[in-house]
Amino acid sequence: MFLKKIRADKQQHKKSNFRLRKSRDTHSNNNSSISNHTIILGKQQNICENNTSSQSNKNNFYYKINESINNNHDTSKNNKDSYHNFNEFNEDLVDDDFTEIYDTGEEFNNDIDENVNGNSDIYGEFNYIDEDFTENCDTNGEFNGREYDNNKKQNCYSGDAGPYFPNFTIFLLFLWVIKHQIGSEAYKDFANIVKHPKFNANDVPFSLATVKKYRNGLPLLPFKGYTVSLNNHNTPSTSKPTTQAFIFPLKNILCRILSNPQLHEHMYFGPGIYCENKQEIWHGVLWHKSPLFGTEHIKLNETIYNLGDFIKYYNIHTHNQLCYGRIISILHINDSHDICIRIENIIEYNSLPFQLKSQQRRNASYDGCLWMTDYTIIINPINIVSKVDIWLTDIDEPSNFQYFINEIVYCVNGQWSTRPIDLRHHHPVEYITTQNTPSNLPIYKFFLDIYIDKFGPFRNAYHGIGGIYLQIGNMPQILRQKLKNHFLIGFIPFSASCDEVLQPLINDIQDLEHGYELGINNQTVWVTGGLGVITSDLPEGNEQSGIKNHNAHYGCRNCMIHHNNLHDITFDIVKYARYHHITTSHFEDISNAKTQAEREILSTQYGIREKPSSFDSISRDRHIQCPHDAFHCIGGLAKEMLQSTFGILNSIGENEFLNVWRNFEYPSVWSRQQNPISHLNSYFFSDYLRLSMIMPFLINRSLISTSMLNRTIVEFLIEKSKFTKRQIIDQFLSLWASFSKMASLIFRKEFSEDDYNNLQQNIIHWSEKVGKFFPRITQLPNFHILCHFTMHARNFATLVNVAVPTKEMMHRLFKAMIPHSNKKNIEMDFVQRDNCLQTLRFLLDGGVDKRYDTERQLNFNMLSKDQCVRALLSSWYILPSKFDLEQDDDDTPLQITCIDENYINIKVQGLYTKHDLQTNNLEKNLDDNLFAELGRSYNEELDCTEHLTSRKVKYYKSISYTIVDGNNQSNIRLRVGDVINVLEDISDDREAEFKTITSYAQIRAIFLHTKDQLQIPFLLLNWFISLGINNSKLGCPRYRLQQLSDQTWRRIYAVKWIDHQPNNHFIHQCRKSGCENGNHDKTNVYYLHNIFYYTAI
Ligand SMILES: [Zn+2]
Ligand SMILES: [Zn+2]
């Protein structure tokens, strides 16, 4: 029996045909499966660990606004002022930087979108209320003249707070809530606190300061203040010449991270891993190559082979021919103890491509000349024969060598070519000398990911301060995306020199490269490592790699393309790449120049700054370890694509587009967006990305003929791009399909070798198309940056690993603190607040405060088990990931259970009313067919064989639950209408090999069935049956949806099959008629799977 293909009328069932497995393209890091399940449900990578609904985000947002208003009340002396402040705050709402992703106290899941969603929802709320209301007034006369606040409600309480309030307590609370505009989250916490049995009113101090002073007793992390000079050009002349910059010592942060048991056990400090699906930083080329993180040498037959050594080996791909190569990395094969070696191919004259064979090269080969290639292969160490001495002629001549290399053979735009040997990225082993590590200590090699970004904490004046944050590349993707795992290093005060502030960090990283001992929980360990990557947005990244601004003549930090040629996708980015050692010599030229004018000329010519970034004094490749940010790049391009698209629509086109857009079947987790044509400029980056996930469908539905386009663009396309009138619409749709496809590939959370190649092909595909429609887009720096994405992706396994959106949210956290600070020393407030939060988090995660004995420590852990403490922490981003989730002692007499102890905290929401049942065509009592299916579900999935008596079920709109699997917990929330994905076993009984495909089903209903005092949740599914063909225009697979009346495939399943948050999007394949204004023709059962859909980060 296959999960999808269970015929309802057959009884045969073999449990063993179900397997729990991840679907390949929606794979998550978590390899563990829930063992007692036989079906394996595809695990989506972007599971929400803590699935907060947009609703709760909204509440939180209101709460924050209220808090800030509240604070303004505190600080301002009169009403006028606070009114002013409120306006200012509202202005903030439209500040792109501020509102893009606004969240403050919440767990961010792994899903920024969810948060962004919450915000845009709120944003929508602010703007839509009016719009909807006007709309209603226009179309619906009965709203006219309706009266509000009309004194019809009359309370007559008799107590001392009567007649308006039932008692004095409510009266006080009411005043307090109204005065300080208390939000619902804050109120909920307050109510929980005062209702706690241990709460004692006599212990409540009158002063807030008394409560706050207990912070100082916590095991805070010591940080240092450094005096830095201020650049007085930017500050009023009255201000001081110096200020203090506060920096956390790197050693202290690393020590705290290693001492945190919840982090320590999930971090990876081993050699580079070779695997098919690359997801983590240690799957990427950078980790593989660098001796700071990976393996430096391997011993084979008593010979030590180092990274960078040249070897002779038997090439099994060419019939065991003896070949030359260079050891690039020494890797462990995933899930085994086997070692493999990646080598760069070095070829002899005979292997040169035909076009490159010349008499001159032949003669050189007689003297011992070989050729290097960019081509790498993986070999088994046993195929290595011996070392061989080869001289790369761009470096000093060694004392003895057998061969030499002058040229690199490479392929550019399908043509073979050569470039001089010095046009190569030096292998890290050529510029990093690692220190001897003590053999008797456990070794931890840290991969540092430094994020630097400026932000304006104040709305009214530009007063940019720079945040410096640390992430640890040794953490898996899922941990790196949590806000609490962004560690604050310090701030660059307004108008202070970045280099000066960074100096203590630079010194700390140098110390780390050398390595040092640390005492971690009574054990001495050796800590080393170094800088892995600097992440940043475009301007900051150029600064940190020493390159001029991106608008300069040569403003790309990876190659020497001229600003006027940004559109040229055939540009040879290998030959004209920026190479670290070459840029270094350029910096030397500049520093040797005699006059300022000369320096400026050189600086313009090389496209570099006059002084290198201070990060140049640590071991790094400034061009490779400063990758471009995919989020800003693709978000920016999406915005351009949308703007240009709306620009070519005439009013007929706009109206039709908006009509389709308004009625579109959005993914259920999205909130409503603002009108894209009129409000595109107030969209956030994430909104641009979302809209582009559905643009191909919107265009397919709305754009029917060229009469919807501006005539000038039609003429332009016919004349310049040589389209026929007939082709224009199809070509335009194809442009969008390729853009959306490209974006979805760029944000993949894991990459196979094929995916890297697909990405590269898609980038080229879209680049070619966009030039025909919107040549202006091809002039943008973001357009050119795409050329470098495949390299960045390979270096860091994925592009999301080095993208900044989660990091940018750190700013939101700090910005949200401003209303609570006295604004005198913002940086100090920020640092202290962060320190307090991280210290609380450390203790909650089970970290040990060395100053106390363990028994006393235990006390703090016990406190966090308290219901009220848990409630306070639950919506806070410092919430421990492993939280003791004991089943709440609810008052409900009937317990909801999946009959599986790994499924806890099961909650249903939104009981269906009679009306709901009618509109959804559901019956309270299951009909014969469904009742029989329910019986089978009990029997086969839950091992309950007894006869069922009750046909009665209760329907709900959603269900949420937590799955505990070893140390991992995942929170799931399913809603009616969601499309789940399941890996279906399609292997034949006779075949030994196990085959699966991903199948999809729509949740038609969620219901509880009561049996033996237990309420058991089930799903009623409608399966999407694959037609095995793709839509020709969009390239999306086509499906037929099973109808409720169609009993071919079984529909009722136990909830426990769904072990991950579903995140799939299907779109109705509307015909020319039948679907109108969002009401889709139910008799048309054909759907498309949206392959452009993803979760941005
Ligand atoms: Zn470039
Ligand atoms: Zn339709």
From TrEMBL:
Compositionally biased tracts (Basic and acidic residues): 1-11
Region annotated Disordered, chain positions: 1-36
Domain of life of the native organism: Eukaryota
Regions of compositional bias (Basic residues) in chain numbering: 12-24
Protein name stated in the entry: BAH domain-containing protein
Lineage: Eukaryota, Fungi, Fungi incertae sedis, Mucoromycota, Glomeromycotina
